[in-house]
Specification:
This protein is an alpha/beta fold. The chain has one domain (5-331): Alpha-Beta Barrel (TIM Barrel). 39% of the residues lie in helices and 14% in strands. The chain has eleven helices and eleven strands. Strands 1, 2, 3, 4, 7, 8, 9, 10 and 11 form a nine-stranded parallel sheet that branches. A two-stranded antiparallel ribbon has the order 5-6. The relative contact order is 0.13.
């Protein structure tokens, strides 16, 4: 099997290590394992950021040293690309945006703050002020850090029940109340298109800024396409067709190799060769906890279907056995 691309998501703030030495050691480990790309999360769903921002609240433990600077320097030294990862449009209890503008919260059909689970609060993706805030974070990272590109995650509108705020009711041009609108209504498709268009507009803005700086844009997306257009306002195949992303990483998390492979078939067909597809495999996620053997089986399967590489979720679950097995597969 020919050499293939390998990336890894580093989800939590300290997943690569809690100090400079451990971060550099972790990145060296990835380089030795032949990884091409590191995707460290620098904006979590609660609203904190893990770099020295002039826009958002900085996580307290990183006020005295800049974690992203260390990661960027080490990645450059080891020849690994780094795409800092933002959880876009999720603004939790530590959000500077929501503290100053609580009215920017997304609303559900009952008029309550839009929440998924216990902590996942959403901002209204349609509001220009929200998009300006999220874009400002990307812009300051692109301007101030030596990175190869930036990464989009939670780049969606949450759920089909979001957002039913007054702004969306007016700006969306839907005559029927959004709290009552259903897929049986004639305006339903207009609503779906408008919601997805708002997210695409943000992707386009990030892409333009990145292109001007000769940087890349990658995105973690739902594997269920095109259903995610309806459910989450995420039309990622269209982003590829429009040339807005350089890499697409479907979050193909499953313990089943057959499901992973069949999803890949759909992903490749949907993208139509407009950008590389690296399948996201869940080593330890909410939907999977794969062994080394399963990881290798899935990797073989998705590559045979036409994927250009894999991205593993997430770094703490990647064992030495995984790394050695992937190296052997790439050299076989």
């Amino acid at each position: 099997m020919p050499t293939f691309h390998k990336g890894v998501w580093a989800h939590s703030a300290g997943s690569l290590g809690e100090d400079e030495e451990s971060i550099r050691r972790a990145i060296g480990r990835l380089a030795d394992g032949g990884f091409d790309l590191l995707i460290p999360c620098i904006k979590q769903v609660r609203g904190y950021v893990d770099y020295h921002s002039n826009v958002a609240r900085v996580r307290p433990e990183y006020k005295d040293w800049d974690r992203l600077t260390v990661m960027a320097e080490s990645a450059r030294e080891h020849g690994i690309k780094i795409h800092p990862w933002f959880c876009v449009f999720t603004e939790g209890k530590n959000s500077a945006l929501i503290e100053n503008h609580p009215e920017f919260r997304a609303k559900d059909r009952e008029g309550n703050d839009a929440v998924q689970g216990n902590i996942l609060y959403w901002a209204c993706t349609a509001r220009p002020e929200v998009q300006d805030y999220e874009f400002a974070l990307y812009e300051e990272v692109m301007d101030n850090y030596d990175v190869a590109g930036v990464h989009l995650d939670y780049i969606r509108a949450g759920a089909r029940a979001f957002c039913c705020c007054d702004y969306c009711q007016e700006a969306g041009g839907i005559k029927k109340s959004l709290t009552e609108l259903s897929q049986k209504d004639s305006e339903w498709s207009d609503w779906i298109d408008w919601r997805a268009g708002n997210v695409t507009r943000f992707v386009e803005r990030v892409h333009k800024a990145a292109s001007e700086r000769k940087m890349e844009v990658s995105a973690a997306v739902f594997p269920q396409y095109p259903e995610c257009i309806v459910d989450d306002a995420q039309n990622w195949a269209q982003w590829a067709e429009m040339g807005l992303i350089d890499f697409i990483f479907p979050m193909n998390y499953t313990n089943s190799t057959e499901i992973a492979v069949r999803r890949t078939t759909n992903h490749i067909a949907s993208v139509k060769g407009n950008c590389p597809v690296w399948e996201g495999l869940g080593k330890q996620s909410a939907d999977s906890a794969t062994s080394t053997r399963t990881l290798i089986d899935q990797t073989k399967g998705v590559l045979e279907e036409g994927a250009d590489g894999i991205v593993i979720f997430s770094y703490p679950a990647v064992t030495d056995e995984d790394i050695e097995a992937l190296k052997a597969l790439g050299s076989s």
